[in-house]
Every structure is written in structure tokens, then in C-alpha cells.
Amino acid sequence: MRVKLGAVSGRGAGVWVSGLLAVLFAGSADSHPVRAGSAADAARTVPPRVARAVPTPHPAIRPAPATSSPGSSLPVMSPSNPLTVTQTATQTVTPPGSLPARPPALTGFGATDADWRSRHLPDPARPAGTAYNPDPLIPAVDGKMGARYFDVVHTAGRVLGYTVAIDPGSGLAGARRTALAELPGDAREVWSAPLGSCSLVQLRSATLARVLGNLDPTGSVLVELRPATGAYAVADDIAAAVFRPLWIATPSASTSCQAGGAG
User: Fold this and answer.
1) Does the residue 74 lie in any domain?
2) pLDDT (tens digit, 9 = 90+) per residue, 25-42?
């Protein structure tokens, strides 16, 4: 501010200067007001020019809005902290039994050709695919070493028929245990019937029915226990067990050997 004093002199000049100082002093007091109050009030009063500014997060790192989808990470704002607190996402675990169980692999009756070959040794002395597991303890047939499995039948890529050699002295009970061992663990004997030249045993397995489907919808296997002498006379004279996918509810007068065929 420029003040021109040249035109004023004497007592008038002094009065004019006094008024000017009064105006300047009043302006300074208005720009810096003095607030009356206690020392505590003064301590709580923070001049605007020294108030601590809260930093504003950069737009690039501003947290996204929270979502309500289950199992996701939900951003939670703490009242005392403007930063984002992220909850750890919970992994969803599929409870056991919610997915269809894989059918069990069969290794005996009903096995796929591949599964059968993985458990049985082909007999090179006989036509390919007809005999497996040659064994010197089994009586020779036609001058050839005996085989544990022979007359094997392959149907639709699976083994659905064969004859198993029974060890001498196994008896009827041992032969029936051997027959059950060729099927899944849930196989049960439905009935048995001694006939003139054999003994028939009807077996059934729910697992076999589920795996084979239309190939054997009831999971039934008829086993013919054949004696070594050609006539079923004594219980300990069983030489072979013949397996066929056949269901007979109950044996009748027409039921005969040769895998349950009518005589």
C-alpha cells in the first residue's frame, strides 16, 4: 500500500496517520483472531494449515467393491484403518460320494481281455487265447502240460467263459471256494445241486451285473463242477470247474450237466 503524505501537513497529518494505523491494526487482528478459552481448548484446536492430511489411495490401487459370492476373497474395511483387509479364500472340497464311482476292474470271470492278460500267462502250446497258466502239477492233456485255465471264451472284449483245473484232493468244498474266488468279493452262492455226472452251483454278483450290463444283466454265473472219473461219485473227486454266464432260478428235473443244459 502506498501512502501519499505530501498534501497533508501539521496537526492534520498526525491525525491522518493515527487513523491509518488504527485501520491497519484492525485488519491484522481480523486475520489472526485470538480465541478465548482454556489451555485444553487450545490444545484441541489445530490450525487448518497444520492439520495432518490423510493420504488418498491412488486410483490404480483402490480396492474393488466387495462381492457376496461364496468362497471368494471378501475385502473388509476396518473402521480404524482405511487399508483393505482380505479374508483368506476357503477352498471348496467335493464331499466323497458326490461323483460316480469308477467300476472295479475284474480279473477273473468278466474281465476285459487286457485285464485278463495282465493276470494270466498264455500257454504257448495251445491256440492263442484259449489256455493260460501252464502248470506241471496239473495232469497232462494230449501229451501237453496241463494248463490252469483252458477253453477260454472271449466275447465283446471280455472273458465270459472258461474251465479252471482243480487241484487233486481239493474236494467239493475246495472247488466251490475256488469258484467263488473267480468272481468279485460280493458274489454269493444261490444254490447247489449234485447231479449224476457233476455238481452245479449257481453264483450271483451285483458288481458283476453292474460292470457287465447287457452281457450279464443279472450278474449270474453257473458253475459246473466235474469229477475226474466221469461220474460224480465222491465229494473229493473234482477235477475242473466250468464257468458260464447263465441264470437258473432253481434246478429242475430237466437240469443236467454241460453247464446246465437240458438232458
Assistant:
1) no
2) 555 545 445 454 545 454
Q: Where are the alpha helices (DSSP H) in the chain?
A: 10-31, 39-44, 113-119, 171-181, 206-212, 257-260
On the CB side of 254, CA atoms within 13 Å amount to 3
- Which domain range does residue 126 map to? 113-260
Q: What is the pLDDT of residue 229?
A: 75
**Bridge partner residues of 204 (DSSP):** 188, 220
What average pLDDT does this structure show over 79-83? 46
Where b means 16+ CB within 10 Å and e means fewer, 124-148 reads: eebeeebbbbbeeebeeeeeebbbb
| pLDDT for res 51 | 47
Asked whether residue 187 is assigned to any structural domain, the reply reads yes
Enumerate the β-bridge partners of residue 166: none
Predicted TM-score of the model (pTM)? 0.60
- 205: nearest Cα among 193, 190, 191, 215: 190
Domain membership of residue 101 (yes or no) is no
> Cβ-count burial of 164 within 10 angstroms (0-12 exposed, 13-18 middle, 19+ buried)?
buried
Domain total in the chain? 1
